[in-house]
Amino acid sequence: MAVFNRYFGKKDKIPGLWLIPILGSAVMFSTFFIPIGFHGTEGVESFIYVWISTADSMRMEFGFVERVIYIILLVYLSLSLLFITVTWHVGAELLKDAFAKKRWTPGVEQKFGWKLWIIIILFSTPYLFMVKFLDEKQFFELIREWLNLRYLSEIALVIIVFWLGRKAAK
What we know:
Layout: H1 19-44, H2 50-56, H3 69-99, H4 114-133, H5 136-169
Transmembrane segments: 16-38, 68-91, 112-129, 149-165
Keywords: Membrane, Transmembrane, Transmembrane helix
């Protein structure tokens, strides 16, 4: 929303916005429960890409394509390309805004932004370390821990913003 929010006006209404949580919940439940139904609770944890293994064990008897794996791989590929396109666009727009020369006062030249470059180096160094020294399974474990930490911090952020909003309203 950091980039795309600028294109929405206050009077713009998105039709069918109420469908997003319903469809999202249906996708999340099916993504979670269908592989458990095929492989069991113990068998699911032994796969890295659970849905690829699940789709490989499915068959459509009267379908145009007999095996479901081809359909799932096509959907995965489409979603991956969509995610990559949106992520690169948002990243490019944020970097373009971060490195743009802004002059608030006419005639005053901006200084070089060392702080921004230091922040970029600090955030890119751990990533380069992870790519070089971790294998795929270790990387997924690290991501799992990161998402758990992020979940707790986002809950804390919502509570703090709610508290500050209530405090400002008084």
